[in-house]
Amino acid sequence: MLTSALKSNIIPNQEYLLQGSVIDSSAEVLHNRLRGLCDAAETGPETFHDHEMCFSLKASSPGGTPQQQQSFLLRVRRALDHPEYPWQLRYLGQPELGEKNQPTVLRSCIDIACTPNVVEFLSELGCRIEFEYVLKGYLFRKGRMKVTMSKIFRMGQAKSPDSLEPMTGSYLVELSLLAPSGQDAVADEIKVFAEQLRPLVHLEKIDYRRLHSFT
């Protein structure tokens, strides 16, 4: 049962994460480097073409004012290249930077396979869509670690996945690992692998609070 699994600490609900970017002109070099370092070097990486929507839901404690309300985010993703795949509902907690010597960002992460009517279900709950985009890219695996190179596209006025416009001239690169709570030693494993990708890409802990201060 889920309760027993949580008590036994066997559910991978913590994501260890480093992020960076590489410009389009250098993406092929990084792609080849990852292909050599990661598993299944002969067959190459998996590809993906996904549509992701981000929903927010306001939550407040009894007696709280509107200013005290906090929102949490839910992400819905579907595979455009494999419409037969289940949709994915993901909850991501607030990123924790920890101490300076903590190698990675740490955040809660729960993934659930679901049906296409999840969007209607979230709307009925009072969730509001904040933004949406399309991702195309490559997925590499190294043991339990996952590396993605994602090109992010803005959807056109028609809100159709077919009318796409690149948001930047670079790829988002993410190195992550899902593990049960308390397995902080895996963060060092991620850091060691990230060092092998320098100087092609610098994967770092991103402080989202600093990014918000610039918006």
TrEMBL record:
GO cellular component: core mediator complex; mediator complex
GO term, biological process aspect, one: regulation of transcription by RNA polymerase II
Gene Ontology MF annotations: transcription coregulator activity
Subcellular locations according to the entry: Nucleus
Annotated InterPro entries: Mediator_Med18
Pfam families: Med18 (PF09637)
Keywords: Activator, Nucleus, Transcription, Transcription regulation
PANTHER family recorded: MEDIATOR OF RNA POLYMERASE II TRANSCRIPTION SUBUNIT 18 (PTHR13321:SF2), MEDIATOR OF RNA POLYMERASE II TRANSCRIPTION, SUBUNIT 18 (PTHR13321)
Family statement drawn from the similarity comment of this UniProt entry: Belongs to the Mediator complex subunit 18 family.
Known function: Component of the Mediator complex, a coactivator involved in the regulated transcription of nearly all RNA polymerase II-dependent genes. Mediator functions as a bridge to convey information from gene-specific regulatory proteins to the basal RNA polymerase II transcription machinery. Mediator is recruited to promoters by direct interactions with regulatory proteins and serves as a scaffold for the assembly of a functional preinitiation complex with RNA polymerase II and the general transcription factors.
Quaternary context: Component of the Mediator complex.
Name of the protein in its database record: Mediator of RNA polymerase II transcription subunit 18
Gene name in the database record: EOG090X0CKJ
